[in-house]
Amino acid sequence: MIGFITDIQTAQAVIDGIRNAQESRGLPYYWTTGSYPIYTGTHAGKVFLPFDDEIMATNLRKGLTPVDFPEFEQLVVSLGGLDARIDLAPQAIINPNASTF
Amino acid sequence: MNYSLSYSLGKTMVVTRGDADANAYIAAVEAAGATVTSTQRNAIDDFYVAAKTSSYYTSLKRLYFPIWGVAAANAIDMISLISGTFVGGVTHGTGYVQGNGSTGYFRAGNFGTLGLSKTNFSSVIGISQIASVDGGAYWGLGNSRFTAIRKNSATSIQRSYCANSTTPAAVPTGIISTSVDATRLLTSRRITSGYTALESVAVPAGTFPTGEVITMGYNLAGDSGTTFNPVIISTSRLTLYGWGTSLTDAQNETYSLNLKNLFEGCTGLTLP
What pLDDT, in 10s, does the model give residues B161-196? Predict the structure, then answer.
């Protein structure tokens, strides 16, 4: 999974920014990258924000993708730029306490 | 059929089919950036008219129809026009949405705000292609009140309700419905070849969850309140999902047929 590793406060600020980019335009909050606690591995305790090519190419509305919004670059800069992204193993965000039923 | 006529300033006559809720949904989808063809308009109108004619429309509280290939349009509830929220890696394909099994899911609202209860509940989910991983929840919430529809295996469905589970034998594709009233919990499946009641059992003894339901996974913290802890494990292709109050056996069967017609009429695809 390609994305950013960051702390809880920065992740929340990014998620709030994504939400505000929609609601400030009078739109419902219909899309976000989400943020995911990292439970295992060298980044345990941090938060993962998925920002892979497919997510950044999502057709949000009228052919616009996340990168078409001016706020996108600001958010990416706040995370250190696209080159700061890493490839995280999906197992790292699986909650070990999640029930399997 | 009810029709309305209107004239633009250019004297061009526009004819629209008449259901107001259908027209409102179509307008919302178009405003969200999707294109709705005349064939799709007719299929949508037919669905609303059929739901009202069959007297189950008022039972529907949420119904999402994510076939448009556009996130904003896919997020719109056909009943309230309120939008849910897509999160993470979700593919918005033509005729389906598909989670990536690690970060992608859809937040669809709290059961506690929809007027649902343990003996007044229904759900529906459309699956056009199953994931390879068993156990992937199509929708779900709760821990000690676990309620969900999941792929149990390639040939069986897991139906969970108030922490009681069964695994009816059926390929977990098509339109899978549940309806619960004071006397029974009905689970059914519609595919192209027909409709099958998979089980009709006594209502389980557990407690009904009132937390937030998600699709493409389940909300582990969904027993009650607003706490949230998504567990994302499904990569199946979903075509529709919704929740409402109880339906009769006949309404449940008709609803699934109307949904099949809606899906096929709007996508040109055939239900599994």
Answer: 999 999 999 999 999 999 999 999 999 999 999 999
Residues of A in contact with B82 (CB under 8 A): 28
Could you list the residue range(s) of the whole structural domain that residue A25 is in? Answer: 2-93
Tell me the residues of chain B between 212 and 271 that have a Cβ less than 8 Å away from chain A.
220, 229, 231
Question: Which pLDDT does position B1 carry in this prediction?
Answer: 44
Q: Domain count for chain A, please give it.
A: 1
- Determine contact: B102 vs chain A, CB below 8 A: yes
- Regions of chain A short of the pLDDT cut 50: none
pLDDT at B152 over 80: yes
Question: In the predicted model, what is the mean pLDDT of residues B226-237?
Answer: 91
What is chain A written as a DSSP string? -EEEEE-HHHHHHHHHHHHHHHHTTT----EE---EE--SSTTTTSEEEE--HHHHT---BTTB-GGGSHHHHHHHHHTT-GGG-EE--GGGGS-TT----
Asked if the structure places residue A47 within a domain, the reply is yes
Is A89 a member of any domain? yes
B203 touching chain A per CB within 8 A = no
Does residue A69 fall inside a structural domain? yes
Is A99 inside any structural domain? no
